[in-house]
């Protein structure tokens, strides 16, 4: 669900953060963990549908090497490309963005 990923973009001390105009702080190496978790989720959804990387990349309008790097957690994907990938995988966007235990990424 989309509610599972909301904590990735909000702070647990939301009022304090908004009132103090402080940026959201991620734990050390959290960005890499988020990208890796997203890539693993993407791969699991793709393989469950028995789609190849080539097929998903082509339908998404992405190069296969770029798509492969997303699955490896090496790319920070734009929202537009995330939507393209969801359409190519024939899934809802919230299913793609649902990451379990997302709260652990924040300080």
Name some characteristics of this structure.
107 residues; mainly alpha; 434 Repressor (Amino-terminal Domain); elongated; disordered N terminus
Structure description:
There is one protein chain. By secondary structure, this protein is mainly α. It has a domain at 36-99: 434 Repressor (Amino-terminal Domain) (Orthogonal Bundle), CATH 1.10.260.40. Helix content is 57%, strand content 0%. The protein contains 7 helices and no strands. It has helices at 2-5, 14-20, 30-48, 53-60, 64-71, 79-88, 93-97. Helix 4 (53-60) packs across helix 5 (64-71) and helix 4 packs across helix 6 (79-88). The longest helix is centred in the middle third of the chain and has 19 residues, at 30-48. It is elongated.
Q: Give the distance, in angstroms, between the N- and C-terminal Cα atoms.
A: 23 Å
Could you name the CATH topology of the domain at 36-99? 434 Repressor (Amino-terminal Domain)
**Range of strand content:** under 5%
What is the annotated CATH architecture of the domain at 36-99?
A: Orthogonal Bundle
* The CATH homologous superfamily of the domain at 36-99: lambda repressor-like DNA-binding domains
Overall geometry: elongated
Instruction: Compute the CA-based radius of gyration.
Output: 15 Å
Helix content: 55-70%
List the helices and strands in order: HHHHHHH
Unreliable spans: 1-6, 8-15
CATH class of the domain at 36-99: Mainly Alpha
């Amino acid at each position: 669900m989309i509610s599972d990923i909301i904590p990735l973009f909000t702070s647990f001390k939301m009022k304090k953060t908004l009132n103090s105009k402080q940026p959201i702080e991620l734990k050390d190496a959290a960005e890499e963990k988020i990208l890796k978790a997203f890539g693993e989720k993407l791969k699991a959804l793709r393989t469950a549908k028995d789609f190849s990387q080539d097929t998903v990349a082509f339908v998404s309008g992405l190069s296969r090497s770029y798509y492969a790097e997303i699955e490896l957690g090496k790319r920070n994907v734009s929202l537009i490309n995330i939507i393209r990938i969801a359409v190519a995988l024939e899934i809802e966007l919230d299913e793609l963005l649902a990451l379990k235990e997302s709260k652990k990424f924040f300080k």
